[in-house]
Amino acid sequence: xxxVTAMMWFRRDxxxxxxxxxxxxxxxxxxxxxxxxxxxxxLWDRSGDPRREHLAASLHRLSRSMGGKLVVRRGDxxxxxxxxxxxxxxxxxxxxxxxxxxxxxxxxxxxxxxxCPLVATGSPYAIAPGRILNQQGRPYQVFTPYFRAWLExxxxxxxxxPAEVDWxxxxxxxxxxxxADGAGEQAALEHWRAYLDDVAGYGDERDRPDLxxxxxxxxxxxxxxxxxxxxxxxxxxxxxxxxxxxxxxxxWREFCADLLARNPHAAWKPLRPEFERMRYDExxxxxxxxxxxxxxxxxxxxxxxxxxxxGFMHNRVRMVVASFLVKDLHVHWKFGAxxxxxxxxxxxxxxxxxxxQWVAGCGADASPYFRIFNPVGQGVxxxxxxxxxxxxxxxxxxxxxxxxxxxxxxGGADDYPDPVVDHAEARREALRRYDAxx
Length: 438
Hints:
With 438 residues, the protein is α/β, with parallel strands linked by helices. The chain has 19 helices and six strands. α4 packs across α5 (101-113), α13 (298-310) crosses α14 and α14 (315-328) crosses α16. It is globular.
């Protein structure tokens, strides 16, 4: 009798621990599992270099933890997964549920083509999208009541990695080339455990880009190198305002995923339909200046240069550069969101698009449109000594402290541009455009 083999189709769960889908695969296959990752051209080709490099490095580390037996195939998953399942005589294919717009459609196509069951267990979230409902059985549109319900609902405890897996082998293409520091499950766990020693200061310091004290766990969360349940279990042992603030941020990530799962159009269209009438300018030279970090506003330029060089940007600075694009340059938020998805190592569609909508004032529970960040004031408040600006804008390293945020008042720099807009006038114009759709 041929041994039973189950397939584990890895996607956004590139780990062995706290992976319920993998445990189900081990049980279904009587310990015999084929681990597969599909390089989907639709996703791979649209990813920027930072995401491709991290994914490649993470796949190498995952394969190493499987004794080098991860099977990689390229192509449309609707063709690849059924073909591999038939090759190995798989009894079932196991996945963590994907609640994104493309993922739901892709999984439906795969399931329709398979001759064996497609079994979804768990998700990349502590509480899967669609689970948190109000007393009327409707989804939440505002974060604070969602957060209270999320806490009350609770989540399962993390599960261990399977004690033993007989990883089977099939023909595989080469893993993609790529390297990234800190990629992989073990690195994610080590980084997280080290950060826990400092989480108490998260509430006070998370808005300070000069201190560089945020966790950067958005990156391993994106690839599923760690599950939020693992992080929440660790945070439960901490009693501090910082730990509470961090837990709230994990809930915001899940709120964004819940919104996108229910409103797939929100990836690129506003949740608030009146913003369809907002007048925007077409991206041109000013948009190019924003992308390249040469707007003449130091905090904005520092953030965009950090993004270009590292594939990461501090969260407070993300809000400032987003506000600047939408409300100072009057460019539609979707162009900024696409640039971020191309440039970010942690580019996650739900978090990216819904946070852009928050800044642009057109999402659920969004920041009011009239909240327009002053890029100079934000720099002075959150980078008071100019440390962050001088780190990423070397043309201004000769300026001390607050002067780095207003170089035009302190002699400037020959190789640094003048501000591309007058912020006060740009703010007035943004409010005029908003008044027109109210």
